[in-house]
Write a structure and sequence with these properties.
The chain has 477 residues and is α/β, with parallel strands linked by helices. It is built from 15 helices and 23 strands. The relative contact order is 0.14. The site of adenosine-5'-diphosphate (ADP) has 16 residues, from α7 and α8.
Length: 477
């Protein structure tokens, strides 16, 4: 098998490879990917720094053309790249193809943004003087991504970084280098000048840490765990560098007595269990008022019985495997914790065997949970969901907000009054009415509050906040 190499200063380099393993079938090696060293990472940062002056002044038509070409190729290859994504991460093929399509849409959107970047012209407070407010590129951006969206998250960080004239050092998650390598290869062939985008695959402790310790990164955009996010923040403050963090969630979905039961069950099943519950926007707390509680739990349990867990590429599969052995242990440890804490295991909880060796876990539903339990407070990041019974809307809203996190929140109701009140009073960055808490558009802002996020929003035109720096210029004519 040929080694997929790192891209540093426009050259493919590296011979020391690591295997990318399919979590649906651990005998299936998806590919071998080079592991960057500290030295490689430093060279990548130096290359991005050297490329910055020219790229930051490049024409908007050049940026537009490269991003458009990238979008077109990703879309033309969505079946192949969707399969690669499903093989390396374990989400089912329909979700894999959907995520690849979204990556193409993101590149297309930012191709357009390259043409639309505008500033402001204002009169000065002093007569005869004009004021111009413009956005300039930030510099070298470090991009550090997690494993759960192997192509969408790299796309929504790389596309705006390049669109606004920054150069990039990109470190994907160790578990899923395949899709990252593919989009870097596409961008490189689409005509990016040498050093504008550098790929350094490898462990967070080596590659990521070297990026954190570099004085030459003007910004780091990170999605991952809260623990690593705090390290990114501390190192960035040390180096006086801009940073943007997307971390965990413990997203609530409120179900009120007046909800359409079918809508509520579909939304809960989707946001709790699809993509194996491995989405930071997954609902892991279902907060249900007592008038609908038993009917909701019965209907959701019936739905869970129909969910097929299995190999991500099999057409009958609804939910693929957990991403790896470490995550599976975390999930099953939390299931044990839930049982010990006194929640009732209403469905699932067991590992399941399939024809291929993989990390398969049943969708798991706890009932009679309280919001104080660890399974209700800590992010599990698996197909494990708790139902919490409440008396009324007021109690539900208070409980929805009673969490260290604030990424996404949902409500299932047919009441305009409660839907409107919830939208206004939820302490989450994204609020969904009669929809899953997961599943967002590519052209509008994404991000959370409290321990979920730090810094400006990602995606849509709001991305300019992070990827540019504002200049105010005064002219006396
Ligand atoms: P998870 O536990 O979900 O894998 P992490 O926060 O560990 O989340 O990983 C998210 C990304 O952060 C990955 O690309 C990982 O390699 C990287 N990472 C991990 N440790 C560090 C570190 N010390 N410095 C920089 N990046 C890191």
């Amino acid at each position: 098998m040929t080694i997929r190499q790192n891209l540093i200063a426009g050259e493919w380099v590296g011979s020391n490879g690591s295997e990318n393993i399919n979590p649906s079938d651990t005998k299936d090696v998806v590919g071998i990917y080079a592991q960057a060293t500290t030295d490689d990472t430093r060279q990548a940062i130096a290359a991005a720094k050297a490329a910055f002056p020219a790229w930051s002044r490049s024409g908007i038509l050049e940026r537009h053309a490269i991003l458009r070409k990238t979008s077109d190729e990703i879309l033309a290859r969505k079946q192949e790249l969707g399969e690669l994504l499903s093989r390396e991460e374990g989400k089912i093929l329909a979700e894999g193809i959907g995520e690849v399509t979204r990556a193409a849409q993101i590149f297309d959107f930012f191709a357009g943004e390259a043409l639309r970047l505008a500033g402001e012209v204002l009169p000065s407070a002093r007569p005869g003087i004009g004021v111009e407010i413009t956005r300039e590129p930030l510099g070298v951006i470090g991009i550090i991504t997690p494993w759960n969206f192997p192509i969408a998250i790299p796309a929504w960080k790389i596309a705006p970084a390049l669109c606004y004239g920054n150069t990039v050092v990109f470190k994907p998650a160790e578990l899923v280098p395949g899709c990252s390598w593919a989009i870097v290869d596409i961008l490189h062939r689409a005509g990016l000048p040498k050093g504008v985008l550098n790929l350094v695959m490898g462990p967070g402790s080596v590659v990521g840490q070297t990026m954190l310790d570099s004085p030459d990164l003007a910004g780091i955009t990170f999605t991952g765990s809260t623990g690593t996010g705090k390290r990114v923040a501390a190192a960035s403050i040390e180096h006086n560098r801009k940073f943007q963090l997307e971390m965990g969630g413990k997203n609530p979905m409120v179900v009120l007595d007046d909800a359409d039961l079918k809508v509520a069950v579909e939304a809960a099943a989707n946001s709790g269990f699809f993509s194996t519950g491995q989405r930071c926007t997954a609902s892991s707390r279902l907060i249900v008022t007592e008038g609908i509680h038993d009917r909701f739990v019965d209907a959701l349990t019936e739905k869970l019985k129909t969910i097929q867990v299995g190999h991500a590429l099999k057409p009958e599969t609804h939910v693929g495997p957990v991403v790896d052995a470490r995550q599976l242990k975390q999930d099953t440890d939390y299931i044990d914790i839930g049982v010990k804490e006194g929640a009732k295991l209403a469905f699932g909880g067991e590992r399941v065997e399939r024809d291929t060796p993989g990390f398969f876990l049943q969708p798991t539903l706890f009932t009679e949970a309280t919001n104080a339990m660890r399974i209700s407070r800590e992010e599990i990041f698996g197909p494990v969901v708790s139902v919490i019974r409440v008396k009324n809307y007021d109690e539900a809203l208070a409980m929805a907000n009673d969490t260290p996190f604030g990424l996404s929140a949902g409500i299932a109701t047919t009441s305009l009054k409660y839907a409107t009140h919830f939208k206004r009073n939820s302490e989450a960055g994204m609020v969904m009415v009669n929809l899953p808490t997961a599943g967002v558009d590519f052209h509008v802002p994404f991000g959370g509050r409290k321990a979920s996020s730090f810094g400006p929003r990602e995606q849509g035109k709001y991305a300019a906040e992070f990827f540019t720096v504002v200049k105010t210029a005064y002219t006396q004519a």
